[in-house]
Amino acid sequence: MDFLKPEYQPTHYAWVADGVAYTRKCDAIETCSIEVAPNMKYLIVTQNSSKYGANNLLVLNQDGTDERRLVNPYLSSSEYKPGDKCEFLGVQNVGNKVLAKIAVTRTLPDSSYKSEPTYVTFYDCDTWASSPLEFIDSRNL
User: Fold this and answer.
1) How many CA atoms are closer than 13 Å to the CA of 13, on its beta-carbon side?
2) How far apart are alpha carbons 21 and 3 in whole angstroms?
3) Measured between alpha carbons, how far is 88 from 95 in angstroms, rounded to an integer?
4) What is the pLDDT of residue 2?
5) 132 and 120 in contact (C-beta within 8 Å)?
6) In this predicted structure, what is the pLDDT of residue 115?
7) How many CB atoms lie within 10 A of CB 57?
8) What does the pLDDT average to over 18-40?
9) 118, β-bridge pairs
């Protein structure tokens, strides 16, 4: 027996704020995914890192206008090494904070192998201050 899982890929995200309906197309560049912040005041958009680099999280107001772009804290951390590439993988709500996963790709010296550690940080969605980075053992994801 062949069992095929149903696939679901959103084409648009829609929401209503103050009685007005809004939509945002999911095009895998400007919008890869959207999550609502725990305080229900903002939308957090994961964007394509090929275009937006390491800072590929955009915070929108309820009316779809830009509030701020989140700066990837890995770039200013002690873990950062020249040549590292990083990006936000996405977000999820944990309590009243936003957990952001950060993927890093590092070419190892004198080797064709790459190291790909994963980190997380928590954002307070009222101030958008980030917590210190935490390493995640990717074997346990």
Assistant:
1) 19
2) 38
3) 20
4) 54
5) no
6) 87
7) 26
8) 94
9) 103, 136
